[in-house]
Specification:
single chain; mainly alpha; 84% helix; globular
Amino acid sequence: MERMFTRADLRRMLVPLMIEQALAMTIGMADTVMVASCSEAAVSGVSLIDSVNAVFLWLFPALATGGGVVLAQYVGRGEEQNARRSVGQLTLLLFGFSLAVSVPFLLFRDALLRLLFGQIEAPVMACARTYFTVSIFSYPFLALYNVGAAVFRAQGNSRLSMTASTAANVLNLVGNAVLIYGFGLEVLGAGLATLAARVLGAAIMMIRLLRPDCRVGLRSLGDLRPQREMFGRILRVGIPSGLESAAFNIGKLLVASLVSTLATSAITANAVMNTLQSIILIPTSAIHLAAVPIVGQCLGAGRPRDARYYTKWLVGLAYLCLLVTAGGTLLFSRPILSLFRLTPETAAVALRLLWFYFGIVVTLYPLAFTITPCLRAAGDARFCLIGAMTGMWLGRILCSHLFVSFGWGIMGVWLAIVADWLIRIAFYLPRFCSGAWLQKRVI
């Protein structure tokens, strides 16, 4: 029996996503370096607000996942009218949510900053206030970009999101260079560059969605009229995905707080490992984004066997990519670590963590994380949320505190990460093998 996607189809989806993730990571690092050249108060203020912005950088895509799953299944079934309705409802949902957040944030900005950060120094608070104000204006545009990215990826068109993301990131970089270095605007310049980048990303997506030749786009204002049934379908996947994303980021913050109590060498080595981990996981991030349209379209077309096949194929591809990226990082570990200018003691800790990470990422990571978006694409988002919450709170958070109390230091924190991954595998692998996820209905 012929499969739903050819290898060429899969390459067209995966390669642009991998390029997009790699460019976003590279430009993001350069952006951080440029902002770091500002005054200490500016750097501190931007850093504080970035911790708030990070919530929405994760939350909007997570909520958009619900629309992506619904749309992918309608596309697979060939129901273009319902697919267009889902695009309108997703646009209304995310844009409305962004306004519901932005307006109160603007009205109660100062009170919110005092609540979150307490009595920080006046120069830092002034910088945080400026950056936060500009950031709030960018939230609706960030939401619209995520609508477009979810819609086009669900149709198998990942090239457009790559183009829009790359253009936005380059504009952010150029804007920082001009406004920070050229005009000396520091925090305001960094904020305006980010705002301009998000406006550009949203504009590219919305212009394409409104074009008459867009197969599944926005055709009229009627598409934006609230439809309770379609809203419910999107939210049944979007809300658990959003909660899962929020829980994951809160858990990371709690673990980071614990790490801050350890020795300086351990803190620095952990920061280096987090950076290297972000680079190692670039291909798998792209694979997870591609899982929704691939598996979702299979199930929408009534082809559960193909959904199982492509889930296994994506897990296998994740293993192959991790062997290359993690293995390459380990092979060139000494020259890579030398770039961070670490002390001999810190370099030794980082190298030990890297060897440990290689062992766990090439054996456990795909089973713990690559199966999840495939289950979510079937509408099994609530089960994914339960597995993620259990792994995060019982594994990563509880075990990290327990292992550190045993005197195991930073290695105890990474052993807790293993506990988290093993718990997730204990949930997701039997669920996949049982086929229960294929019985879920989204549309």
